[in-house]
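Input chain follows. Return structure tokens only.
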Amino acid sequence: MQDFIQKECQVISDYFLELKQQAQQLSRAVEMCQNALKQGHKIMFCGNGGSASQAQHLAAELVGRYKLNRSAMASIALTTDTSILTAVGNDYGFDEIFSRQVEGLGKEGDILIGLSTSGNSMNVLKAFDLAKEKNITTIAFVGAQGGKMAEKASLSICVPSRETNHIQEMHLALGHMLCGLIEENLYYE
């Protein structure tokens, strides 16, 4: 058992060292988000399963706080309203649960961040398509293969793994860096 734990820790460490290669992409994402917030726009997050909980987590970091006591930032997770999710899922289909919310809540100049380990989540792809029509910038957090989301997104951050758990670990770390840098740049400029 200890051998497994040591090997797994080494795998995680190696992935995180490779993650440094995404510094430029993450810097661009931070700039896009902070510019949108400065102009009175919002950041929306979406994803499925573990990525849904990360979407909720990251929106909470911006509305609440990450590390600094400061004003709330405009952010929302499209994964949290069970009445909307179940009504849209029932009436229009699961593939529409995020695009309907982008239609109703998204405005030109907003940012939509989609998290997906495969990069092929149909409901996120449909939300990206509608976002493009509405001039909403899209940022994809995906695995090494990128999937269709990486092709459709305004900006893609592809982490160096094909394993769901490790992709999600890196997405959370990148999301924390994103929130921390936005917070620091907007409140220490």
